[in-house]
Structure to design on (181 residues):
């Protein structure tokens, strides 16, 4: 069974970017404003936990984005992703998608994937999907099951400082602040 996250997991969005994007590390439309102690930015990817002298696999958080295509909604998009993940990982355990509150988003979901590679032991991928119009943002925490309790506070802090900057069709900048409540 996948360790569940609180059902009341909620996010708040606020449209106000007070710094220029050049002041932040960015991945696509994502602006990384918080880097937890013991983590490093990985250009074009997200962040990775530093594990000097440790034999365990470091946790990481990837930032991705996509555009909603033929799917009608984010849930259908996630189901298509789940099928692809299932083919790639064999028989992973999956939970969700679970709807989460994400202010001003059209849709938002949490989706969990757990598998157990022989080399590393059980691994958890906690994926947060959020949709604004046709834009989809995906934040994926990847960590060993045994490290989840240790990594979770860093992940939550990272999410609190994460921003998404989307260009509106009018050409003005819409800045969306994502904060964990």
């Amino acid at each position: 069974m996948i360790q569940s996250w609180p059902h009341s997991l909620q996010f708040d969005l606020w449209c106000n970017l007070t710094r220029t994007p050049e002041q932040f590390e960015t991945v696509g439309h994502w602006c990384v404003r918080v880097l937890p102690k013991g983590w490093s930015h990985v250009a074009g990817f997200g962040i990775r936990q530093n594990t000097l002298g440790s034999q365990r696999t470091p946790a990481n958080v990837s930032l991705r984005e996509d555009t909603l295509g033929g799917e009608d909604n984010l849930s259908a998009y996630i189901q298509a992703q789940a099928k692809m993940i299932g083919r790639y990982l064999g028989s992973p355990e999956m939970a969700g998608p679970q709807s989460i509150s994400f202010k001003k988003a059209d849709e938002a979901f949490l989706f969990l994937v757990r598998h157990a590679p022989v080399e590393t032991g059980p691994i958890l991928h906690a994926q947060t999907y959020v949709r604004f119009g046709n834009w989809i943002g995906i934040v994926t925490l990847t960590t060993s099951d045994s490290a989840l309790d240790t990594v979770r506070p860093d992940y939550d802090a990272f999410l609190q400082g994460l921003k998404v900057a989307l260009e509106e069709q009018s050409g003005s900048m819409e800045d969306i602040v994502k904060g964990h409540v």
Q: What stands out?
A: The chain has a mean pLDDT of 76. The chain has one domain: 10-14+23-49+56-176.
